[in-house]
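User: Predict the structure for this protein chain, please.
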Amino acid sequence: MGFKTGIVGLPNVGKSTLFNALTRTAAAQAANFPFCTIEPNVGEVAVPDPRLEKLAEIAGSKQIIPSRMTFVDIAGLVKGASKGEGLGNQFLANIRECDAIAHVLRCFEDGDVTHVDGRVDPVADAETIETELMLADMESIEKRLTGLVRKVKGGDKDALQQERLLKAALAALEAGRPARTVTVDAEDRKAWDMLQLLTTKKILYVCNVAEPEAATGNAHSAAVEAMAVEQGAAAVVISAKIEEEIAQLDRDEAEMFLAELGLEEAGLDRLIRVGHELLGLQTYFTVGPKEARAWTIHTGDTAPKAAGVIHGDFERGFIRAETIAYSDFVACGGETGAKEAGKMRVEGKSYVVKDGDVMHFLFNA
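Assistant: Here is the predicted structure, written as structure tokens:
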């Protein structure tokens, strides 16, 4: 299981440049004019995790299979997009299909790169996009409420629940707040998620700064980070140009390049780590002579749920999970050493998987 993140923002903020770096490809055209991305580009990128390579080295695995993330490069939105301005509602639909939104904000000054509003103000840019998403949600909710009238009058239980949730979302939106600010009870969570409202998506603000400011950020990125804290969102500072350059280098060259810039890690690594935290995701591993593999699950998932990520039969027929903590696997030199040291645990259906667990599942077919 991975997750799908939509890269959004106003035109000319560096979305396609970031996409190129993230997916290690030049599939998305990066050009200095609005709407250079006409169709959403979809790319998958391996989630970097040094633990996986260490496990493979210890186990002598022939193949390393990292978990993957999907990124969608969505064309630049503009003021009025919810009413069809620019490239309009077709791109709002692309956002609806994503789990999270990586909102790229221009935090660099460059007279050679046009800004659609003629100024650099990332907080205002963020508000422009959020407003369009809120307006689109309001229009969608009003249409859905109209379509529910007959079923609600007939006392349909699901329709009554949907109407209640839609009205709660509409009240928040009319008060100028995104739908993600609505408090939803556990019994309503599944129905709420199925509404697929744009403003319920988790937001990660990506502050695109000039190359000399990649390590320190600037006043623009500081303002965005403050906004993110206030909203309960997340923010990362990167230079899309640097990330694009790093994408063309091998590992040793990339490490030297980052060191010269005073950076401890690539922006891609920070972006993925913060994205995982934002969506409440974690990783467990399966390790053997054939392959070492990373699997992404939600924090709090039980062992059967984690097994189901590999195959539905694993979850349905779950018996138990043989589990070794990553640190114990490394310290004991692998599975055999961990067993001898008493570090392998047999866990049942109620076990909550921890990040970095090395697991082997036993199940009834």
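The chain is about 40% helix and 20% strand.
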